[in-house]
């Protein structure tokens, strides 16, 4: 495993930051018809300018953030005996996917100030708009948003999952689920010491539909009329074909 | 085998979709309903976004109805004249329905209103059909000669103008009631992602007085064109028709419909009607319970702001 990792390290051309280098096992994820999720290896190394940092207790946080989406969270309430969406909170920007991988429990390694500045934890990432409609507890809604997405594996927090070897090499696996939204995924690495971020580096992972998926999606947006006609032709020929085949069997 | 749906942007099991298509296809062939009233809620349950489920289901119904109607052409059980009159109403209704659907979507209440529509329509139609079929069965079991079957009485329907002769159905009635039935069915097709057979079939039997024999083929004939029109409207205004999803559903669906048509031809009309009534009531009560019982998760997520 370590060898494979080192080979990958050599093959990829990691971009250099001031004192962090970072690489990904794949620079792009293609969503094809049989796409069933994907594992991305995030790896890199830390360059030390003095012996002091090498001695220190260092920690690492890796985040992968999908495209932001304007999102509405609904809460049901009983009205006239039936459960209806009675209250809503609009979230201006919530990532469609967010994974955090850390070397140790995040509360032990990340200070509040650093979190506020770098926006690492979920409550910092998700930005509800100023007011909700018909309620005052916006926090309950953002918590619900996180809970639902966590259950769907769209928001992940994996403490202890990132490995930091000899304060120099690091690696972690990020599991991308099958239900991915297209777009640029931001992969960030934060190097921490004494609950402060001492270095950071970001790169982009492109997630896009490919092949048949790409073609269908483009057609539906760019030529919706022909897309509709094609859908109907397929439907009618399938219906007619099945009927013809059954006639043959009946004779 | 998981398969990624390009428009719905979710990954689902391909065999699950094929199986759902097949079962619903059998029912579609048996009863002359598009099967949408079953399929659309099932698609909600497996996580397809409601807007995509409704639009794609309209496309899928085209296929299963086409397969079904060919079998009816062969047996000459399609009243083209009546079908065309119903179709005119259907196209008007579908256009109205898409406008209403897009408006509800902007309110964020499309889910609730679609479900409420299901509960109300399925409950009323299923209940009426069930009682009527029970009575019909009781009549046929009763000793002969007690109640000679009466021809439909002259009601308000026969007083309406614009009368037209429908030879295949053996009717001479005004075109107004069939057009209205068509409009209602068209609206439902666009909003609920159904063919509307579950409401058109009883309306044709009880309201228009058409013979049960031609009802199924004629309703399928109308459904094909109305759902094709609805598909085009959703594809061009909402971009919510998922071709991949439709293909998987219709491969199962068209095969099922062929089997279903053959089963249906061997059964008595009363038996068919009572079975359909039970199915309609079953789906209705499942949806009603979802609205009435306390949900396990009170919160839900929708994309996009207002």
Automatic annotation (TrEMBL), chain A:
What keywords does the record list, in alphabetical order? Membrane, Signal, Transmembrane, Transmembrane helix
Keyword check for Signal = yes
Q: Where does the secretion signal sit in this chain?
A: 1-17
Which parts pass through the membrane?
A: 225-249
Q: Which domain of life is it from?
A: Bacteria
Protein known as: Putative transmembrane protein (Alph_Pro_TM)
Automatic annotation (TrEMBL), chain B:
Q: How does it sit in the membrane?
A: Multi-pass membrane protein
Q: Tell me the organism's taxonomic lineage.
A: Bacteria, Pseudomonadati, Pseudomonadota, Alphaproteobacteria, Rhodobacterales
Q: Where are the transmembrane segments?
A: 12-39, 85-104, 116-134, 179-207, 214-233, 239-260, 272-289
Pfam families given in the database record: TauE
Give the family from UniProt. Belongs to the 4-toluene sulfonate uptake permease (TSUP) (TC 2.A.102) family.
- What is the scientific name of the source organism? Nereida ignava
Top-rank lineage group of the source organism: Bacteria
On whether Cytoplasm is a keyword of this UniProt record, the answer is no
Q: By what name is this protein known?
A: Probable membrane transporter protein
Which InterPro entries does the UniProt entry name for this protein? TM_pro_TauE-like (IPR002781), TSUP/Inactive_protease-like (IPR051598)
| Keyword annotations from UniProtKB, A to Z | Cell membrane, Membrane, Transmembrane, Transmembrane helix
Its annotated compartments are: Cell membrane; Membrane
GO CC list:
plasma membrane
